[in-house]
Design a protein that fits this description.
five-stranded antiparallel β-sheet; 145 residues; alpha+beta; 40% helix; 5 strands
Length: 145
């Protein structure tokens, strides 16, 4: 049986200007309080971003239902904070110096990477698929390459 999990990153943006809004801490707090769900919701490097990691799935239907529920909940929570949540690769209109998430991890990254940390205004979706053996992994990577 093949298993997989999904990570999605979202920007929180102002609905009028589409510029990032540094309100991820508030949206994260409200999402955490709204209901118990599988997976996790965390900060990302920018204060205008969130990341959600799903539970492990064995079928596409369960993953689709889970993602749909979460995205609906996220959109509603962001709206209550006066923002839109977008799973875009980069914000539509970004600031030259975005605000970083104020955690020790991201402050260390900013100190070490300096300007690169501020220039990293991207989000993505990652699908993690279980590989049954090293040999199968080599074959999969060779096909992907």
């Amino acid at each position: 049986m093949t298993t997989f999990g999904i990570e999605e990153e979202y920007f929180l943006v102002n609905p009028a200007t589409l510029q990032p809004e540094s309100i991820a801490a508030f949206v994260l707090r409200d999402l955490t309080l709204s209901e118990t769900r599988s997976g996790s919701i965390t900060h990302e490097s920018l204060a205008s971003q969130l990341e959600r990691s799903t539970a492990v799935f064995t079928d596409l239907e369960s993953a689709e239902a889970d993602l749909s529920r979460f995205r609906t909940d996220l959109a509603s929570t962001a709206r209550r904070q006066g923002a839109l949540a977008g799973g875009t690769g980069t914000p539509f209109d970004a600031f030259a110096s975005p605000r970083l998430t104020e955690t020790p991890r991201y402050q260390t990254v900013a100190g070490e990477l300096r300007g690169l940390a501020l220039d990293h205004q991207i989000s993505g979706t990652h699908v993690h698929v279980a590989v049954p053996s090293r040999e199968a992994g080599v074959h999969a990577l060779n096909r992907a390459r």
